Amino acid sequence: MPDQPALPVLRDLPLVDHHCHGVIRRDLDRGGFEALLTEAGGAYGRAAPGGVTLFDSQVGLAVRRWCPPVLGLPPHAGPDEYLERRAELGAEEAGRRFLRAAGLASVLVDSGFEPEPLLSPTEMGKLAGAQAHEIVRLEQVAESVAAGGISAGRFADAFRDALAGRARHAVGLKSVAAYRVGLDLRGERPTETEVAVAAAHWLAAGAGAGGRPVRRLADQVLHRFLIWCGVDLGLPVQFHVGYGDRDVDLDRCNPLLLTRLLRAIAPTGTPVMLLHNYPYHREAGYLAQVFPNVYVDVGLATHNLGHRAPALIAETLELTPFGKFLYSSDAFGLPELYYLGATLFRRGLAAFLRSGLDDGAWTEGDAERIARQAAGGNARHVYRLPAGLAGRGFSE
Ligand SMILES: [Zn+2]
Prior knowledge:
Layout: H1 9-12, E1 15-20, H2 30-37, H3 58-66, H4 79-89, H5 91-101, E2 104-110, H6 121-128, E3 131-137, H7 138-147, H8 152-167, E4 170-175, H9 177-180, H10 192-204, H11 220-233, E5 237-241, H12 259-265, E6 272-276, H13 281-290, E7 294-296, H14 301-304, H15 309-316, H16 335-358, H17 364-382
Parallel strand pairs: 1-2, 2-3, 3-4, 4-5, 5-6, 6-7
Helix pairs in contact: 5-16, 7-8, 8-10, 8-11, 15-16, 16-17
Bound molecules: zinc ion.
């Protein structure tokens, strides 16, 4: 049974997960577990016609294949048996086991989306036995500035100050413009007047002082302003790209729509990190090839495609230069997804490198170098992370 990746070096190589979220704190019943398994949320479960369950999809079968042994069950244990065992161990112990088994050197946690209490970046690092770093979400900073009460004319300065403060201990920033207005953004940096006018519209629509609710930011000019402020700080700027939950209009999330902005940012040299990308991972690979400062991953898709993850990784690496390809799980909530992402990434990348070796396309030395770059070397370089914990055992 080929349990181990087809390239031995990938079995023990600690990974840098450059985009993930916090783990959920509560115990989960079957409905709660399935709601977190994919980005469909609670859309399935009892309401699904014909009793369709997401356990009967690539990600569900991948969970059953890879996760039960971590909890002391045989592979392919049924969902109910699995969840019973999980409940017996409790959320914390299950979380510890999966995060340890993922074999992570570092986690870069996006702290900007917290629909319920999640483990903080520090807690995540502790549980995973990994270094933890924070990624600050640009829109969340803007919305908190607005919620604090600010005039439109002062918004730009107040945002720049707030961002500089929040970013002091962060290693990167993130834009969710894809979710709010799509990626078809113009390249130019907006003028101060344009920002003030756009802020006036936004603030008038509901953001304001006195604890009034802040309408979520969704404005082309303001998103571009936020992104340029991030570029000015020189920290890598992550972009949500490709699929997510039902909130995204997927046709507006093709990374090619970012071309004008990427062209404008390129001379600054600030790294742009295209996240997830599926099903536009080939387009993302093209952008990574032609723009020296663009990097890609296939987080979220890696575990959702399950058995097909090797095809996804091979397609992404058709054009993506090997020094521009990073690992991420984009896991949220379920500790299983941090482990599943890591396992399927190791196996998929190993299969890709092994097939090239078998074909005489590259040497063992090349394969090992590429594996080390993708597992963590590229992320360490681009986020300027402290030297990794290479060679550390993680199977305890
Ligand atoms: Zn994410």
